[in-house]
Design brief:
binds S-adenosyl-L-homocysteine, single chain, alpha/beta
């Protein structure tokens, strides 16, 4: 007799972020899942006999040979993955910028603890202003964060690796301690489909630090992705042994 496994979806933007986890969990590519016209990659596996996993990566842009980062691929892949797999929980995993003023440090892994906002959708018309910010819910995993020593914080999303003063002000207003390029877009999809959602983000660079983001990001991408793998495995172990939400 087989017992029903609980389905968890893990969404990554960059192959370098996902590769360590795919290898450690021994996930297998599923070429049948999704839409062959799209660049996304999907991997399947199990964890501790109680979780069924689908890990999706946004793949490369064939023209430029770089990862499909940012909100458009994240949105489309989230819809495809969540619609096809119907998980009980969706996790956006990846790297991000942190803030010294929030106590952030390189290599920290954060779990989202408040709504996901956009910091670059400025629409100064009543109603649209709030719509632009988004503010889509995060599942609440405070107990898990404490048990696993994860930092907790708000995640803010925009389509630039750099930022303007207005972006910074938006992030401060929404109480974000993590800046990246996909989570709020996925949060919108998960909210539409009524699927609990959280983000796990490993800090590659410090937004209010002294180094240019792109240099710091590239220098720390591998290490941060390995730390992300360790924490994601711990999160899966926690989920495998805790009752369904
Ligand atoms: N030149 C890099 C570009 C990566 S862009 C390359 O292709 O190798 C950054 C990616 O990491 C995005 O997917 C984003 O979600 C995340 N990220 C890490 N640090 C970030 C920051 N400070 N601001 C925005 N996104 C960041």
């Amino acid at each position: 007799m087989t017992t029903a496994r609980r389905r968890i979806a893990l969404l990554f933007a960059m192959e370098a972020e996902a590769a360590p986890l795919i290898e450690t969990l021994g996930l297998r590519q599923d070429q049948e899942f999704g839409d062959p016209r799209l660049p996304f990659l999907h991997y399947r596996g199990e964890f501790a006999e109680s979780l069924e996993l689908l890990l999706s990566v946004n793949g490369k842009d064939p023209r430029f040979g770089v990862d499909n980062i940012g909100t458009e691929p994240a949105t489309l892949n989230a819809y495809l993955t969540l619609r096809g797999f119907r998980p009980e929980l969706c996790i956006s995993a990846g790297t991000a910028g942190g803030f010294i003023r929030c106590g952030g440090a390189l290599g920290d892994v954060y779990v989202s603890d408040r709504p996901f906002c956009f910091h670059d959708r400025r629409i100064p018309i009543p109603g649209f202003d709030q719509y632009g910010i988004g503010s889509y819910p995060s599942a609440s995993y405070a107990g898990m964060a404490r048990a696993l020593g994860l930092k907790e914080g708000g995640v803010s999303t925009g389509n630039s690796l750099d930022f303007t003063e207005r972006c910074l002000a938006g992030m401060e207003r929404s109480g974000a301690s993590v800046k990246e390029m996909e989570a709020a877009a996925i949060a919108w999809v998960a909210w539409c489909l009524k699927i609990p959602f959280l983000a796990l983000k490993s800090i590659t660079d410090l937004v209010d630090g002294e180094h240019p983001t792109e240099d710091e990001f590239l220098r720390n991408l591998r290490t941060a992705s390995r730390l992300l793998r360790e924490k994601t495995v711990e999160v899966l172990r926690y989920l495998a042994t805790s009752p369904p939400a």
